[in-house]
Amino acid sequence: MESREKFLKFKKNSRIEIGIIPGHFATSHSHVNYYVDLTSVKTGMKMARETAKELGSLYSSTQVDTIICLEGTEIIGAFLAEYLSGAGINVDQDISVVTPETNTNNQLIFRDNVQKNIWGKNVLLVISSASTGKSINRAIDCLQYYSGTLVGTAAIFSAINEIHGLEVKSIFTEDDLPEYINCLPGECPMCKNGRKVDALINSFGYSKL
What is the predicted pLDDT for the residue at 152? Predict the structure, then answer.
């Protein structure tokens, strides 16, 4: 499977790149024909910093008190907070960077000692990949519990443009992936053609079948 991997550079900044592997992949709620490998962007210091700069330029005029990081984007979130506190409307502001827990009901929660960073705060959500919006919806539900206000959603890769009237801003979009397919399992054309699923995928990576 790795032999099929190709690398895609961000058009505005060639120092940012992701891996893409064509195939038949299953997430917990959909089937896709590309595995988008974001590992280097999320774990490499230099690429995470460049990604944060590009995303930060999109939110420099947005008031941000707290950044919520999902799917292993904490390094990007920290650099993003640093960028925003040095530019635009958030200059010199101490921006909090937090990550929610997941409870036994698969809900996102914050412990009592962290909730002060959410209550009444303007929150920017950072997520690695948005394919259907399901993870973003979970985050929106979480913010409602703690009276936080979502002011933006930033992603490394997104196949959706907006959710609940709020634009999803990303580095890479489905336009960067030719013939990208993202569908419900029962509607998957690859399944209907009898093609075997190559791997199960989530935000941590993939497991071959």
Answer: 94
